[in-house]
Amino acid sequence: MSNLEIKSRFHILHVEVSHGSDRHDIHIHMERAPLVRDLMEEVEKKSHVTMPNQQLIFRGQRLHQNPDTELEKFGLFNGNRIMLIGEKLAEEEDGHFQRLLTIEKDVKLIDDVLELVCRDFENIKQSQQARSRCEHFLFDLQQRGERAQTDLKKFQAITNNFNLDTSEIYALKKQSQVAALIQDRIDISSNIISTISSYQGGGQNGDINHPDNK
What we know:
Blueprint: H1 3-9, E1 11-19, E2 22-30, H2 36-47, E3 55-58, E4 61-62, E5 81-85, H3 91-127, H4 135-160, H5 169-200
Parallel strand pairs: 1-5
Antiparallel strand pairs: 1-2, 3-4, 3-5
Helix pairs in contact: 3-4, 3-5, 4-5
């Protein structure tokens, strides 16, 4: 793929965010135009200032007030500097919050696995080959789905067992969000496994509710 093709396919944004004496390099690579929300998520990871606590100022514009607006509409491009105002979390809560962010990222990576399983299964169905000739591939797809579900349940146990104090408001909120995300993916993986199993047994062909159809 040429540099021109890469540029036409991906939106690439590199900016600097200043937070007091701290400087954070933010890199965003996406297949769509990045939103303020995307920037805020990256700032949260780098600065340890949660999204609700962020005030992002660029040339007098308060970006945080428009989270679903494309960044380029504020005249923001590569090399620009943005000012961040906001307090970091206390050390203990920040440790919990960052751990939950890591789990959330890992869970989202499992989306890619589930999506590939769905696509491979649809390709097998569309090939109209006899089930007996596809038995090995179907078994492999089911195994991949089951491994993904096993990993999700491990993340679920870790997330549910976080010992958070009632004062850790932002960590508690993130814990709830991550727990809901994991349960949603477990439900999706169960649907995938069930559908493949039914197809192997010669049952009705079903449409898998994969991550693209959440």
